[in-house]
Amino acid sequence: MAEPDIVQDPEHGAPEDALLLPVTEEHPNSDRCQTLRKLSHIRLYKKRWFILIVVCLLNSSNAMLWISFAPVADVTATHLKCSLDVVNYLSLVYLVISIPIGFLASWLLDTLGLNYAIIIGSWLNMTGSIVRSASEINFLNSGRSNLIYLFVGQSICAVAQPLVLFVPAKLAAVWFPEHQRATANMIASMSNPFGIFLANLLSPVIASQEKYIPLLHGVYGIPAVIACILATAGVNEKAPLTPPSISAVNSATEPFFTGLKQLMKNRAYIILMICFGSGLGIFTAFSAFLEQILCFNGYSNFIAGLCGALFIVFGAIGALLCGLYVDRTKKFTEVVKICFALTSLTVIAFAVASNLKNIAPLLVVICSLIGFFGFAIYPIAMELAVECSYPVGEGSSTGLAFISGQVQGLIFMVVFQSLTKPYAVSPLSSCGMNQTEIYDWSMATLVMAGICSIGACIFIIFFHTDYKRLKAEAGTEEERPEDALVQE
User: Fold this and answer.
1) Which SUPFAM superfamilies did the record assign (predicted)?
2) What is the CA 156 to chain-centroid distance, rounded?
């Protein structure tokens, strides 16, 4: 039998490797025949790494813009001449807006394609960062208009957030082979908390005084501009010419609304959506309120920033190790359940330790462990959502899980703030002496630990699923003769 010709793709460049397969002698219009014809030139393109870099930069930039004021909430409140609640609303607006926009983002990702989501998201992200910076231009501001520019800019960035967050699973499925999907999803997903890490690290250093808040806007605007330029110039197709895996041939075969109906009937997916959303909501509130939680007992912005930074660094390490392990073993469920249990234990430890004084090293260790176990769940749960809901589109399955997280995050942030107790400023506090009162977060942190523990118990006990995408790929692999595989 003659080997099929290798077709070079001038747009995507030469493939790294190709699996060349014969098309079986069946009716040429049969579904199986058409699928195998597409599989006859499965190959990987180097451009997938460029798109991954663009998505990582965009994800990091959007996260930095979201959380930029939280590590310096007291300094920001002084600069804007407003209360801490107003500063918290700058983070909260992301959650409020991204909930309704999330459904539109899911539809756009599964219907129009990956490239539209990346480009539109990058332009919205850049525009929002520019509008935010306008709050520091004197001739544009009168009265309280600087707050208007800030909230409008944050709102535009918030519209971009669902497009940015929903992309990793779709990117991994469309551009990466089966043995790289979890790792690619992990890298793209963890770029968002990496942006939070940078903000926790940079904000206290840059904005050590209120006069440096304008510099903060400029520094965080640069990555947004670069990401927009790279996305507009380089992400010009929604998928490679030939698929990287068997499941990529039939990616997002279900229509959007049909897929949503299937998801709502999928018991395993609903459990995952609720429990993952609960964890995501807890982590959102934790990142936004960390500085305010710690300053009550005298911990400085530097300690809070260090805790937030190591929370992300060790989270990236945990996600990397678990992602590589899952790519090799495909033990999605086992890894998520173990990490869920350990995360709940570390959050309980934080709830207790954050109410004690002069134990900064212990708090740093606890926050690092929360990140290590908690962020390991993030990318693997996204892959698990796709596995248990296949062939529903990746944008829909991951999008609904994130929307669940945004809804619960919004609820948690409101509830936790309502559980705080106001106290007069004391010399032991480091919460900014310009404030007339500070807040005790002890009750809020205990409730946070309780919610995390309940979510972990529900997931560990009730979540069970088959890996539908892997089974579909295995079924197609079994139909192909082993000696027909030729690697370029």
Assistant:
1) MFS general substrate transporter
2) 18
- Please give the Cα distance from 337 to 44 (Å, whole number): 32
Burial class for 345, CB neighbours closer than 10 Å (0-12, 13-18, 19+): middle
For the domain 45-238+251-487, what is the CATH code?
Answer: 1.20.1250.20
Rounding to the nearest 10 degrees, give the CA dihedral for residues 222, 225, 226, 232: 170
The DSSP string of 279-325 is: HHHHHHHHHHHHHHHHHTTT--HHHHHHHHHHHHHHHHHHHHHHHHH
Contacts of 21 (CB under 8 A, 6+ apart): 36, 39, 40, 42, 480, 484, 485
* Whether pLDDT at 169 is above 50: yes
What is the C-alpha separation between 62 and 337, in angstroms, rounded? Answer: 29
Sequence-distant (≥ 6) Cβ neighbours of residue 80 within 8 angstroms: 86, 87, 146, 147, 150
- Residues, the chain: 488
Cis omega (within 30 of 0) on the bond before 391?
A: yes
| Residue extents of the structural domains in the chain | 45-238+251-487
Q: What is the arithmetic mean of pLDDT over 50-70?
A: 89
Question: Which amino acid is present at 209?
Answer: Q
Model pTM above 0.85: no
Name residues whose C-beta falls within 8 Å of residue 176's C-beta, 6 or more positions apart in sequence.
44, 48, 184, 244, 245
440 φ/ψ angles, rounded to the nearest 5 degrees: -90, 120
Residues forming a β-bridge with 486: 20
Q: List pLDDT tens digits, range 342-356.
A: 999 999 999 998 888
Alpha carbon 146 to its chain centroid, in Å, reads: 29
pLDDT higher than threshold 80 for residue 483:
no
For 78-110, write each residue's pLDDT tens digit: 887 777 778 878 877 887 887 888 888 888 887
Is the model's pLDDT at 363 over the cut of 50? Answer: yes
